Amino acid sequence: MTISKDPKYVCFQNGYGEHIVIFPNLMQHANMVFNLGVMGRPISAGFINKDLVCYGESTSLKLKAREEDTEIVKEMFRK
Question: Do the beta carbons of residue 62 and residue 52 sit within 8 Å?
Answer without folding.
Answer: no
